[in-house]
Amino acid sequence: MNIVILHKIDKCVQKMIDQNFIKLYEDSFKKNWELPALSDYKDGTSLTYGQLAAEIARIHVLFAEYGLKKGDKVALVGKNHTSWSVVFLGTITYGAVIVPILHDFHPESIAHIIEHSESKIAFINENIWQNMEQNKVNIPVFAIPSFNLIANPTAETVKNKEQTDAAFAKKYPNGFHREDIVYPHTGNEEVICLNYTSGTTGFSKGVMLTANNFAGNVTYAHTLDLLFEGDRDLAFLPMAHAYGCAFDFLYALTEGVHVTLLGVMPTPQNLVKAFQQVKPNIVITVPLILEKIYKKKVLPVIEKPIIKTLLKIPAINTLILNKIRKSLMDALGGNFREVIIGGAALNKEVEAFFMKIKFPITVGYGMTECAPLISYDHHYDFVATSCGSVLKGIMEARIDSPDPENIPGEIQVRGENVMKGYYKNPEATAAAFTNDGWLKTGDSGILDKDNRLYIKGRIKTMILSANGQNIYPEEIESRLNNMPYIAESVVVERNGKLTALIFPDFPAIEADNLNTEEKIAEIMETNRQNLNKRVANYEKISDIELTLTEFEKTPKKSIKRFLYK
Do 366 and 399 fall into the same domain? Predict the structure, then answer.
């Protein structure tokens, strides 16, 4: 292995963040007691920091009533909502481990994660619960946002909201006050979150994130002066995902920020309306949002023949571009300091245009296994096509390449933000790290002399969708390969959509006298539709292509995936 470390910073792999992570919230809730903390855009629910602290205390009472102990797991499934936030914060400040599960995971995967994580109690959005095989979840389940008990497999755990309220009133007979905010000590070395990047049986990868991992992200964000007390933030990325969770939620609430939780589909129409109302001071987003804005608001303007001509005239060019810039700024509320893009690569044409008009964008880089941040630059330091500088004093990066500045190789990292490993999956954990302890990102890139990363592509099989979701083709293939008349398959991404390349089970087809093009096509279309009923929306197959020969394989009988794109 040829590895050169281009820009070495102070060793950060052996130390621990000085600031205790849980203490951040104890201090913030006291300091910002009267300020607005969380609001639901959809239904108007709002909590001050003091009210949020009281709701967290109520969750603590509920946990105690159920006999929850330090380190026990709590599953949480739902869209961004104040109730979701209360459960998350209530869990980690109690000393338990939160298991946030993406609401658009398939119900089968949700049930599997709850079981795999060994969660003792679950909070699930009632609509999601109605679509699950409820007999597979054998722990108490509370609905959010109502907190009503909706599943109770054991008689001795009968506790409803009224009983919890009574226990809370008994514990705090004079009401809940600032001085009541005292959380049990949780060391930064302790695991406080299991974040599942995959939920299918056989592919379960629960990322074990410690308080130190989150502390690394949050304390680094503090040094950037991105948000201040009384600022506003619109959280529309799913907070069950590490990116939205770390910065729209965990970081924001340590600064006294008022976070509005969108809670509805982040369509361009919904977002524009919400931006106008909230007027956030920062916009944390994925490339898809900016790309849609560019396609719908910018291209129709600059593609007009008369505008194309005018853009060739220097003075007029500046005037038009400034007008477009102002229109885009206004569309995002007109009050933000910076737009931070993460979760996937931004289309280069879109990036070039936004840079040309001096729009305040920057592109960061991270992964769930780093809770999530690895590199970042302020918009005024951002270099086009890069994904920022490796976090100084927090993270280190190296490139598996003989010439890291010019020849792409795997990006490998270590430091405060790197996960402890995958829960109950020592094989996957071992495979994720090099022999000398660096996390293998699975991304190919280069690292310049200023410690700035440039990603060239993915070297893992994982596909990153346009909205930042991780897609694991093996999971989809494992389902496909068990369907009628399919011998083997390879799932690839083409033009932003998933295509399944399939080698049919010709002996079975011939045995059943189905060997006509029309019948095979009908069978495969039925398979596609049945598959799409069982996977998340972002994992659905758009097209099927048939091949008449088996896929080429390695000596280990693994398909040579790089041949099929």
Answer: yes
C-alpha 529: how far from its chain's center?
A: 27
Which helix (H) or strand (E) element contains residue 315? helix 314-331
Classify residue 141 by its DSSP letter.
E
CA-to-CA distance for 345 and 352, rounded, in angstroms? 13
Cβ atoms within 10 Å of 312's Cβ, excluding its own:
8
Sequence-separated (6 or more) residues with CB below 8 Å from residue 511: none
Distance CA 180, CA 34 (A): 15
* CA–CA gap between residue 495 and residue 478 (Å, rounded): 23
Structure tokens at 375: 């590199």
Query: Alpha-carbon dihedral of residues 119, 122, 127, 131, nearest 10 degrees?
Result: 30
Place 157 in a pLDDT band, splitting at 50, 70 and 90. low
For residue 248, the 8-state DSSP code is: I
Look up residue 151 and give its two tokens.
Answer: 């599943």
CATH number at residue 322: 3.40.50.12780
For residue 148, is it within any domain? yes
Instruction: State the pLDDT confidence band at 4, using cuts at 50, 70 and 90.
Output: very low
**In the predicted model, what is the mean pLDDT of residues 198-223?**
88
**Rounded to 10 degrees, what is the CA torsion of 34, 36, 38, 43?**
120
Q: What is the pLDDT at residue 159?
A: 62
Q: What is the pTM of this model?
A: 0.84
Q: What is the pLDDT of residue 15?
A: 78
Q: Encoding tokens for residue 167?
A: 């226990």
Same domain, 145 and 56: yes
Structure tokens of 441? Answer: 């990102």
pLDDT of 9 over the 50 cut: no
CB contact set of 419 (below 8 Å; sequence gap of 6+): 207, 208, 209, 210, 213, 368, 369, 370, 371, 439
Q: Based on the fold, state whether residues 448 and 485 are members of the same structural domain.
A: no
3-state secondary structure 428-459: HHHHHECCCCCEEEEEEEEECCCCEEEEEEEC
- Is the same domain home to 171 and 276? no
Do the bridges between strand 36-40 and strand 46-48 make them parallel or antiparallel, or are there none, so unpaired?
Answer: antiparallel
Which region, left, alpha or beta, applies to residue 324 given φ > 0 means left and ψ of -120 to 50 means alpha?
alpha
Domain interval for residue 479: 472-563
Q: Out of 412, 435, 458, pick the residue that ends a domain.
A: 458
What percent of the chain shows pLDDT beyond 90? 73
Sheet holding 439-447, edge to edge: 395-400, 409-415, 439-447, 453-458
Element (H, E) at 309: helix 305-310
Closest CA to 416 of 19, 28, 101: 19
When the pLDDT of each residue in the chain is averaged and rounded to a whole number, the result is: 91
Which of 423, 458, 493 terminates a domain? The answer is 458
Structure tokens at 487: 């011998």
* Total domain count, the chain: 3
Nearest in space to 207 (alpha carbons), one of 406, 39, 432, 32: 432
Q: Same domain, yes or no, for 427 and 524?
A: no
